[in-house]
Amino acid sequence: MGQTRVLVVDDEQRIVEILKLYLENQNFEVYTATSGQEALELLEKINVDVIVSDLMMPHVDGTQLCRIVKNEEKYKNPYFIMLTAKTTIDSKIEGLKIGADDYITKPFNVKEVIARVLAGARIKKLQNTILEKNIELEKYKTKMEKEIYMASRFQKSLIPKKGKITEEISIDHIYIPAIQIGGDIFDIRKQPNGNVAFFIADVTGHGIVAALIAAILKLSFVQASDQYSSPYDIAQKINKDLLETTTDEQFVSLFVGVVDPTNLELKYIRAGHPEQFLKTQGKIIELGGDGFLIGITDNLLISEKKISVMPDDIIYLYTDGITEAQNEAGELFGVNRLKEILTRKDDLAAVLKEIKFFTTHFDDDITLVKIKLGINTLF
Predict the structure, then answer these.
(1) What does pTM read for this prediction?
(2) Topology, domain 5-133
(3) Fold agreement (5-133, 159-373)
(4) Are 332 and 323 a contacting pair, CB within 8 Å?
(5) What contacts 148, CB < 8 A, 6 or more positions away?
(6) Domain covering 159-373 assigned CATH 3.60.40.10 in the classification
(7) How many CA atoms lie within 13 A of 30 on its CB side?
(8) Per-residue DSSP letters for 165-227?
(9) Which residue from 62, 110, 146, 286 lies 20 to 30 Å from 379 (Cα-Cα)?
């Protein structure tokens, strides 16, 4: 950085010369003007860090000069010290209101003026540093927002499309990440043997790291569902991949299911995930079972469960972002409330409307998946 630039403005030539001499002795780069108009003409050519200006001048006075340089961005907001013979509190307040940073009354002590200019120069330097950092932060923020937007688009591409998975089975879903990208992930796929496998997972935390792990889980599920027919083996494969690619601090709750249309069965495992729902004949059945979070140990302690299914049954998958949401009174949405709504309604848009009626503030990702077992050709 070069010398600090100071502009002295006063219609008394003697004062201008005295201040110029003393300021140059302090190694300031000093410019002078004998009127507000001359000062503005000079400021069209150069930017200064500090302005020391008389208040009472013909044509463009100190008040007008201060207002102009403080309100127009091209002048770079110089530190403005007002010199005046007015000593009333009201006049000082008026000067500060229009943007003056400091106020010195005449007759002044040159040493005081020098000290005020030195202080103003330090403040201006600090302001410039803050401004530069803010510009850098804004650039970084813009870059991160773009990257998060691209990451969000990528994550959305991992979510299965709504509609038919097979002629008999279809999916609908709601996915609302807490901060554009999240740690919830789900998928559904037809297996080589004709069964349909699905999973839902919730990664601890939010943001980019959680989203990356969610992508790993999706890839692992795709591979596992092609290789293995049982939910247990699929879960073991996902757990193994998770342990090999993440740190010890990253845990995941998981639910994996496989629908067998020939034997009218749903097999599933639950690893630290909330109990999911099967809606059959208008009633909600909780799909429970033992099992701890995955990503902790390679010895996955889970047990596979089995339940019969019927035509027009619906499997509901969700994450705890819904059930742990709170309203303004601090009341949890809760599992029972979700069950009651799903008992009455099948349309996810209507379900979401009731959730948002309870609360519009969500601290966690919101995921609700509906898997409909069709009646046309299945069963």
Answers:
(1) 0.70
(2) Rossmann fold (3.40.50)
(3) no
(4) yes
(5) 180, 181, 208
(6) yes
(7) 21
(8) SSSSEEEEEEEE-TBSB-SEEEEEEE-TTS-EEEEEEEESS-HHHHHHHHHHHHHHHHHHHHH
(9) 286
Nearest-angstrom CA–CA distance, 236 and 166? 26
Rg from Cα positions in the chain: 35
Domains of the chain by residue range = 5-133, 159-373
DSSP character string of 320-364: HHHHT-B-TT--B--HHHHHHHHHH---HHHHHHHHHHH-S--SS
Write out pLDDT tens, residues 130-139. Answer: 989 999 999 9
- Measured over the CA atoms of residue 327, residue 329, residue 335 and residue 338, the dihedral's sign is negative
State residue 379's pLDDT score: 38
Buried b (16+ CB within 10 A) or exposed e, 145-177: eeebeebbeebeebbeeeeebbebbbbbbbbbb
**Residue the block writes with tokens 């010199």:** 83
Structure tokens at 93: 């307040």
The two three-digit tokens of residue 139, written as one number:
């650039």
C-alpha distances in Å from residue 330, one per residue of 103, 126, 176, 320: 52, 44, 21, 16
Spatial distance between the Cα atoms of 207 and 187, rounded to a whole number of angstroms: 20
Residues 176, 99: Cα–Cα separation, whole Å: 46
pLDDT in tens, 231-255: 999 999 999 999 998 876 778 999 9
